[in-house]
Amino acid sequence: MRAPAVAPIDSRPRIMTAMPRGSIRRFGRIASALCLVWMSAAAQAEERLPLFDAHMHYNVEARSLLSPKQVVDLWRKTGIRGVLATSRPNDGTLDLMALKAPDIQIVPFLRPYRVQPDRHDWFSSTGVAEYVEKELQRGIYRGIGEFHIFGKDADAPYMARIARLAKERGLWLHAHSDEDAVERILRHAPGVKLIWAHTGMSTPLDKVEQMFEQYPNIVGELSYRGDLEQDGTLNPRWKQLLMKYPNRFVVGTDTWITPRWGEVENLAAFYRRMLGALPRDVAERIAYRNGMEIFGLQ
Ligand SMILES: [Zn+2]
């Protein structure tokens, strides 16, 4: 940016005409420097990818430490503009929604957990079934999860029931599962829409690719995939997958334990760095647009 051109004598603003020559030059230099600062701040703001956090829990333990307002402020500071919210119990999600933050989209998912131990046997607990039934009556949820289920447990009649119910009602599932359980779930309700938490976490990438080919309704969420980067840059095999399916991956913080809330800004920086190795349009999709579009938010 050049220094602002000096206006012709008769149209100079008063302050300029009142200044000696040296002052005018100094003024020009300062204005020019300010202009550069402003431009680089604007460029940084433009460069910072907005994020849609597709894996967030505002669990009861975190609620005693962070108020809903503090959570929303953290998202603002971090550039998180949309959130797939799932909390144990669901009150955490309701509290966040009650703030009605105009600049943060909250997509509520029904979590089938009342207390932490439900995670292990929710699919065979009558108490959980009653809780889920009651929560469904709110009519606000866009999906069910995150739930944990592995291997043959996914053949439990209640898992099959939830999968079919989700398909009938157009709800998403958010499953923390191994590939075996995902395939069992999809057999209960072929075509049900499923966000695969952690994209299997350690599922071999050839298997992930095969599943993405076979099941077009799977979306992979990337938290805790320890192999995303190699030597501080995007793993080439991952790059291949993300480029092949740019519409089918989302990022998440997974604040499953309270200390993880202290990592949210680092996680956002990690995703931005990792996605920086992709073309901007693909990076934007994975960082933000996919999450928004899946839920019809843009
Ligand atoms: Zn989680």
By CATH, the topology of the largest domain is TIM Barrel
Structural class comes to alpha/beta
Tally of strands: 10
Supply the CATH superfamily name of the largest domain. Answer: Metal-dependent hydrolases
Q: What's the CATH class label of the largest domain?
A: Alpha Beta
Beta fraction = 5-15%
Report the principal-axis shape: globular
For the sheet with most strands, the description reads: 8 strands, parallel
How do the SSEs run, as a string of H and E? HHEHHEHEHHEHEHEHEEEHEHH
CATH architecture of the largest domain: Alpha-Beta Barrel
Query: What's the number of structural domains?
Result: 2
Annotation field: number of helices: 13
Calculate the terminal CA-CA distance, rounded to whole Å: 35 Å
Computed over alpha carbons, the radius of gyration is 24 Å
Strand order of the largest sheet: 1-2-3-4-5-6-7-10
Low-confidence stretches: 1-19, 38-45
Structure explained in plain terms:
The protein is of the alpha/beta class and 298 residues long. It has 2 domains: 35 residues; 246 residues, Alpha-Beta Barrel (TIM Barrel), CATH 3.20.20.140. It has 13 helices and 10 strands. It has an 8-stranded parallel β-sheet. A two-stranded antiparallel ribbon has the order 8-9. The chain is globular. The N terminus is likely disordered. Zinc ion (ZN) binds next to loops.
